[in-house]
Design brief:
Blueprint (H helix, E strand, L loop, with lengths): L2 E5 L2 E4 L4 E8 L6 E8 L5 E7 L6 E3 L9 E6 L4 E6 L8 E11 L11 E4 L3 E6 L1
Length: 129
């Protein structure tokens, strides 16, 4: 089991930027694919982005909602995954969750919540218009 703690959320004006961090701990934390999801009030949790355990591959949500604005990255020396969010919009307001793949060294990046086995507690991002 991997333990995940998110940070970096907050209140920002539209057009601004935030960088979310997810600190991972546990025996396999450095060898796990990681992802970010978000859940707006009254809506389901949606996939945002994922990154392979090596950092060599990334996957973003199919919709145009985050492409070109959000960037996922990781620093395995720090066991930390990041989500850089630029040009934020009010519709980006949500609780953002970090997640870890169910298995270490998995060769395929999961793009749905069922592919992830560990979750953080979430961090609130609020974008004002």
């Amino acid at each position: 089991q991997v333990q995940l703690v998110e940070s970096g959320g907050g209140l920002v004006q539209a057009g601004g930027s935030l960088r979310l961090s997810c600190a991972a701990s546990g025996r396999t934390s450095g060898s796990i694919n990681m992802g970010w999801f978000r859940q707006a009030p009254g809506k389901e949790r949606n996939f945002v982005a994922a990154i392979s355990w090596s950092g060599g591959s990334t996957l973003y949500a199919d919709s145009d909602s985050v492409k070109g604005r959000f960037t996922i990255s990781r620093d395995n020396a720090k066991n930390t995954v990041y989500l850089q969010m630029n040009s934020l919009k009010p519709e980006d307001t949500a609780v953002y969750y970090c997640a870890a793949d169910r298995f270490p060294y998995s060769s395929s990046l999961p793009g749905t919540s069922s592919g992830f086995g560990s979750w953080g507690q979430g961090t609130q991002v609020t974008v004002s218009s």
